[in-house]
Amino acid sequence: MxxxxxxxxxxxxxxxxxxxxxxxxxxxxxxxxxxxxMQDRIGANRADILGxxxxxxxxxxxxxxxxxxxxxxxxxxxxxxxxxxxxxICLVPAISTFAVVPFGGRYELFGHQVNxxxxxxxxxxxxxxxxxxxxxxxxxxxxxxxxxxxSLLGGLRASAQMLSYEVAMGLxxxxxxxxxxxxxxxxxxxxxxxxxxWGIFLQPLGFVLFFTCAIAENKRVxxxxxxxxxxxxxxxxxxxxxxxxxMFWMAEFLEIVTISGIVTTLFFGAWxxxxxxxxxxxxxxxxxxxxxxxxxxxxxxxATFFAKVIFFxxxxxxxxxxxxxxxxxxxxxxCWKMLLPLALVNILITGLVVLVL
Amino acid sequence: xxxxxxxxxxxxxxxxxxxxxxxxxxxxxxxxxVATMSFLAGLYVLLDAHLIAVLQLIVYAGAIMVLFLFVIxxxxxxxxxxxxxxxxxxxxxxxxVVVGLVMVTxxxxxxxxxxxxxxxxxxxxxxxxxxxxxMLFTEYLLPFEIASLLLLAAxxxxxxxxxxxxxxxxxx
Lengths: 357, 172
Description:
The structure holds two protein chains of two kinds. By secondary structure, chain A is an all-alpha fold.
């Protein structure tokens, strides 16, 4: 009982500090640095402490300090309650979705079973969808409550776009569920121990569709029409300042991390190293004793998982700085006329293959 | 602990439902309904029906209510002035009491019939995706298929309504 409690608290603290403490601020820096690299600029390198710049990392620190000192401004005529609540509705799902994503397997440590996921839900992947669909309200309410035409247009675009891509994403997931026969993310991860059973080999089309829908759901370029700065100033968060403004950005960065985590779990073998089964890993690490081997295996698996996550973060950043923004009708056509039929075809083919095998 | 959470969810659900019917602002009413549905999802979780809880959030809170909000924002529905007539209020009160009585009678009948399980009856598998799916595709296959037919009819109807409007504007 006490061990369970300690385990839960340790996992929550680990995931929270990893996401909010490490990924969120560092991604702000990565975004600047990578865009600079891809556009042949130098990028953030001016903020320094005693002449030491830490390759621009201090910009995140400077940003945080600046934001804390800014005035929290609510425009006249805005709906105060919803204007205040909207960024929270955006941020809370972004933080809590990672609770069902496993970042390691099961380990026997000192006679205690350690399961490296905060909440091992039977409905795992559906929980992700439930929270993602609630995040829509943050965006829509932010747009509506600001009493600004730019914001309202951004909110309207966001609601239609996120709703449409949720439908396509839900259908895409069905193929994955059919192959693995479970909604539980830990089970899906455990089934990918064999390299050739990774989701990407079983569901190649599913991966492309899911990744596209996930980026659209997160409203990043090329799908960032709700905040299109060349026409809508900043879209739904035009009227936000200070900490609340940053909360929208944090939600976006955390969603990047969550998307990477889910893609890794569903399609890229979760915490498994390619061609290495759990048994092999344990036998290689046997020199450290039974508990030591389990502990080292845990470290290796967690490191593997986060290495994959970082790769997909990099991939999303590269896409963001490579593609131009789609027009709104193109986004809608892509969803309803291409992704949705393809997802249905994917289900049909998967069903046939599952039936034959 | 469970009782405490149950009470909190119940109070939340009832209060937000009351807010929904009493407020005059459309967006506030819609958001109250979202809150009600979220609290109901919490109650489902307490009943070990995780799948239903999550589906409640995805379908009702996540999809349908976003559409509601979308329409409210698109049409820019404003706050409605004026009071309800006394006669309408009376009718509403009457309807509320009748619906409540019907509910109580129904639950009483089910209870007397013995088709309502007592507390603690549910097995471990209860409420899991597998259990719900198995029931849906064996015992309740016919109602399930009828419901899907109904939805199909609704989709076809919506498409026809939307199409006609385009044709009308085209001929003008």
